[in-house]
């Protein structure tokens, strides 16, 4: 049974409206397909569609409410000048009434995986709300915050950006008690002069941290000292994680991983030894440590987490009667996440299998695109990856720099996969797919 999210009285107070007090609502939506019963639908105009097209459909259910900016207002709709701004207003009210501990995450890669890990582990300590999927922009963050229930004990939000000022805008809505910067890398670098510009943009998350809040930083990151200076200027308490000397230190031997937490050793059951996953565990432990949680409750938490589709999840599939182990990391790609994926892939045991990489374009790199795609080839050439198939236009720079023995095919788009690349795969291949989402590989491989 769903818990009431908003009463009619609350909605009337936020929007200065007069809907009947008999109503209550348990869901806020910006996608009409998510509205079933007792939902509030914000009809927002996006780049590709206008939510006003679906208002009639939503209001067929007499328990639903629509927030509109055009069309005829009725007893179950509220007309405002700007529906996105109205969503922000409701999100702001939601944050104001909440007594939950709020955690906000940003960084160049690893945000969504860390968010899911935190969501899973915090549930052991109380009701937890987590932003869905990768809802981390000016639509997704207010939508996620507006769905924070007054009964929630914890809220976990992901804050993304592609240019300066975006995180500042989002964090002042979320107002986290704890903020995390996973790492700094050249994602969206086309909108910045250099990576230091990205560092400063990510550091905007500190602008909205609540009084006596905490910033959690990766001690191993190249920009740690820069971020530390910003935090110190703002008098924000810092908690660190990493393989180097830090508050929560990752210690790794040949067969075991353990964590040194303020000079005490903690062992957790872990099957996945990927470096990025270990960083996420360490950041998660930082959050629980700062909340004074009993860390022994987390001992079995890190083994059974399901990796979401397109973020490195593995599954056995059949392609043209050939058994293939698919590692689907095709939802997003930038130089940092690609390097991490290649590194983890190269560590994997082969067992008489071939390692095959299907690589799509990395986007939003601007004038540096050629350099970063060529750099990817230099990294791949040092690994035990057997064949590389490149899909897109920018990856031609990667393909040209690959060793001849590693070259598979270079094709323009996903239409060439089935009849070209799939024919060249062999039985028992391990296939890693890595690409920016817009290339289409995520939707293509989601069908398998």
TrEMBL record:
Main localisation: cytoplasm
GO cellular component, one term: cytoplasm
Domain Mur ligase central positions: 105-287
Pathway the protein contributes to: Cell wall biogenesis; peptidoglycan biosynthesis
Superkingdom classification of source: Bacteria
Residue span, Mur ligase C-terminal domain: 321-436
Keywords of the record: ATP-binding, Cell cycle, Cell division, Cell shape, Cell wall biogenesis/degradation, Cytoplasm, Ligase, Nucleotide-binding, Peptidoglycan synthesis
Gene3D superfamilies: Mur ligase, C-terminal domain, Mur-like, catalytic domain, MurE/MurF, N-terminal domain
Any single biological process term in GO: cell division
EC number: 6.3.2.10
Subcellular location: Cytoplasm
Cross-referenced InterPro entries: Mur-like_cat_sf, Mur_ligase_C, Mur_ligase_C_dom_sf, Mur_ligase_cen, MurCDEF_CellWall_CoF430Synth, MurE/MurF_N, UDP-N-AcMur_synth
Known catalytic reactions: D-alanyl-D-alanine + UDP-N-acetyl-alpha-D-muramoyl-L-alanyl-gamma-D-glutamyl-meso-2,6-diaminopimelate + ATP = UDP-N-acetyl-alpha-D-muramoyl-L-alanyl-gamma-D-glutamyl-meso-2,6-diaminopimeloyl-D-alanyl-D-alanine + ADP + phosphate + H(+)
Gene Ontology MF annotations: ATP binding; UDP-N-acetylmuramoyl-tripeptide-D-alanyl-D-alanine ligase activity
Function description: Involved in cell wall formation. Catalyzes the final step in the synthesis of UDP-N-acetylmuramoyl-pentapeptide, the precursor of murein.
PANTHER family attached to this UniProt entry: UDP-N-ACETYLMURAMOYL-TRIPEPTIDE--D-ALANYL-D-ALANINE LIGASE (PTHR43024)
Protein name: UDP-N-acetylmuramoyl-tripeptide--D-alanyl-D-alanine ligase
